[in-house]
Description:
Layout: H1 2-21, H2 50-68, H3 73-91, H4 107-135, H5 141-171
Amino acid sequence: MVQTFFGRFGWFVALLALQVFVFNHIHLLGYATPMPYIFFFCTLTSQTPRWIYLTAGFLLGLLIDLFTNTPGMAAASLCLTGMIAPQLMRLFLPQDKDKDDTWMPTARTMEWGSFLRYTFCLTVINTVAYSLLEAFTFANWQFLLLSMGGGIIMSFLCVIGIEAIRHNSTKHGK
């Protein structure tokens, strides 16, 4: 239990630091910024209570907002993502898993196809919510669509990259 807590806390801090110090300074053609902190929800097990999703999402989002001067946007979008993540996980539940078993959504436990669909849905929900809050208007809808599309693609690729590294490191026993 303690080891699991410290593992989750390590992911929390690492993804926060990566977002604040690296990814907030990447803007694809001035439109999109990757948000790999969505991966944090992929490290939570299937039996994680919803209040932990919401609390962790709010805290992670609040810390990102504090460092990036985006008042409440990341916190709100991560709370929405955290509220929907458990249902999405059940939707993409592998056939060989029982609903009552505890398992972590990874490429190994879900197979790559289900894991990619799960993380893509989380990425779309978070990025669309964040972009809508950031723009707060539909007046420049072309910019909004470019921002959403670029953010979704970049965030999804970051999450896939992190999972691929994690998948290969556990596969080789590191």
